[in-house]
Amino acid sequence: MKKKVLIISTSVFFLSLFLCTKTFAQSTPDSSIPGQISEVQEQIDVNVSPGIPNPGDDVKISIEAYGTDLTKADVTWKIDGITAQKGRGVVELDTVAGDAGTSKKIDIIILPINGPEVDKSVTLAPEKVDLVWEAKTYTPPFYKGKALYAPQEKVVVAAFPNFKADGSIGVDPTHLTYKWLNDIDAIPEYSGYGKDFVLYQGPIILDSHTITVTVNGDGAAESNAFVPLAPIQPNVLVYEDNPLYGVLFNEALPASFNLGNNEITLAAYPYNFGFKWRTDPNTEYTWSMNGADININNQPSMVFKNTSNSSGQTTVGIDVKSVSNFLVEAAQSLNISFGSSSNNSPNSVSF
Q: 128-229: what CATH class?
């Protein structure tokens, strides 16, 4: 009889333990709601396109989730506290970035069907930055064009940010932070606080590269810009150096022309070579006549004389090389007719 009572008491003890355990397990969700909110919030991402909008850009903001179906969630979008749109499955908002120096706060209130309310927000603070590049290459005097970037030469890319505090007051560019990239590679030596330019030198491989800068100010103020750099082959043009008017830069000599007088001074001017002066010692000028080199001591100009009053044609060539950069070279040839036009055989004349 005592043995049966012991068994019954033991059964009652386990039954009570089971009921207590079940009650405790049912009460657990109430104490873990903050954890559930955090978990759902981490599953929801906010995407902004473009990632760094410029003033006036069309901006698309969207939400996506992993583990919860947002097409069945109630979503409310607010712009600066005012409801812009709401509804079930409204996962995108189209808006326009404001003026430089202004900000727009987007609040997103999400109520998933399988979890608590989740709040997300993003701030649009558009700013403007312009990039200007200058090749460290040579162009002749009075040239109205832009010096271009030749292979393996240097280019300065400068950033001109137009950041505005409170939408009106310009921000000092030296008080901003700059991050420079060559394609996807960082340029750490030119990145940092107040570093608004980069000195770029092209590689040996003749390929185009993109220089990008991201500029950051206080708070969410950020902007970026990029410029593609593609090397071009330099060239050389030949002008007449007139004894009365000087070098006639208004028109380069054509590939073929008639010699009006018995004498002309030819002046070679390289374009887009990596030096500051036409007579730079790192530049090599080689003149030729009818294929034979003329030794005139590396001079950029030469005098053509028809001393014998003969007739015919001759081909004058000029080849310009950079001594320090083997990738930079240009050549030009001129077919010059002199005397009577009836005799077209090549003739050698004095220089």
A: mainly beta
